[in-house]
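sorry for the late reply, my laptop died twice this morning and i had to redo everyting from scratch. anyway the thing you sent over, i finally got around to it. pasting the sequence first so we're on the same page, its 399 residues, then the predicted structure underneath. double check i copied it right bc i was rushing
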Amino acid sequence: MLDGLKRRLYVLSFIDKFAPVYALFTLWFIDNGISITNLSIVFILWSILGLALEVPSGALADIVDRRVLIGAAFALRAAGIAIWLVSPSLPGLIVGAVLWSMHDALASGARQALIHDELDAIGEAHRYGVVMARIDQFSNFGFGGSTLLAAALIGLGASIEAVGWVNVAVAGASVALVLRLPDVRWLTTGDDASVPGGWWATLRAGSSAARRNPVLLRLMLMGSAIGGLMVVDEYVPLLARLNGASNASIPLIVFVVWLGLIAGGELAARHPDISSSTLASLMLGGTATMAVAIAIESPWALMAIGIGYAPVQAAWIIADARFQAAAPSATRATATSVRSLGVGVISAAAFLIVGLLAEGDDPTAGLHWIVGILALSAFALPATIPKRTLKLPSQPPSQ
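ok and here's the structure:
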C-alpha cells in the first residue's frame, strides 16, 4: 500500500511543478513594459492577499475534502497563467496574481495535511519526513525537466507565450491526479479527533495550537522565516539577463539553481534526524555562496545559488516534518496555514526590500539583504528545531 501511495504522490508532485513558464514569466512581463518595481509591488500584493486567505482556507481544509480543495487551487492557478498570457499588462498581471494567490492559500495548508493523513491512513505517518523529502524532490525534478523543455522550445524559436500555453495545458493533469487520491476524511472526523462547532471552532483551535505547544510555536516561527526568505530564485531570470544571458540559456541557469533544491531534498531524505547545529553550519556556508554568486557579474555564476539553496531546502523539509509530527491531527491544516501566514508576511517584506533597493531593473542590492537575513536565521536553528522528527508530542502536555 505504501509503495502505491508513494507512486501516486510522486507523479502528482512531478506533474504539479512541470511548468516551463516558471523560468520565463518574469521576463514575459519585463518584455511587455512592466518594471521590476511594479513587479515587486505585485509580488507584495500577491503575498498580502495570501495572508488574508491563508488561515481561513486552512480551517476550511480541516472540514471539507482536501482533495477537492487542492484540485480547485490547481485550476485557479492555470486560469491565472492564462490571463497573464492573454493580457500581459499591469492589470492582467494583478488579476493573474490574485488567482495564483488564491491557489497558494487553498493548497498550502491542505497539501501537507493531506499527505500526512494519506500516510496515517495506512499506518505510515512516521515516514512523513522521508516521503515529503522525496515529494519535494519529484516536484523539483518536474520543475527542472520543464525548464529544460522551455530552453529547448525557445531554442527552436518558440515564444515565451507559446511556452506558457504548454504550461496551462499540463495544469489540467494535476487536477485529475489529486482527485484520484484515496478519501481519508475519516481520520479527522472521528469522535476523538473532530473539533465541534464547525469552521469557526476549527479556525480558533488550529490558530491557538501553537500558543499551547511551545515546540510547535518554535517550529512555526522557524518555518515561516526559512520559507519566507526563499525568494532569491524569483529574481534569477532577471539577474541572468542583466548579466548578458540569452532567453534560451536562462532556463538552463534556473535549472541548475533548482538542482540545489533537489540536493537539499536528498539530504533531508537520507538524514531526517540530522542535527540542527549541522544544518545551521551548512546554511551559513550556503548563504555565503549565494552572496558571492549574486555579486559576480556573470550569468553562469548564478548557478552557484543552487549550492546555497540545498541546505536551506533541507532545513525547510526537516522543520516541516517535525512541525507536522507536533501538530494536532484535527486541525493540522489550520496550524500549517498559520505557519504559511508567517511565510507570507516575511515574503512580502522580502519583496518590499528588493523593490525599494532596486536600481532600475537590477535587484542585486535587495537580494544581498535577503541573503544576509537568511544567514542570521541559521543561528536560531539549534534553538528552534528539535533533535528528532519522530519523538514530538502530538498534543500539548496536560496541565
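Confidence is low (pLDDT under 50) at residues 191-196, 389-399.
thats about all i looked at so far, will dig more tmrw
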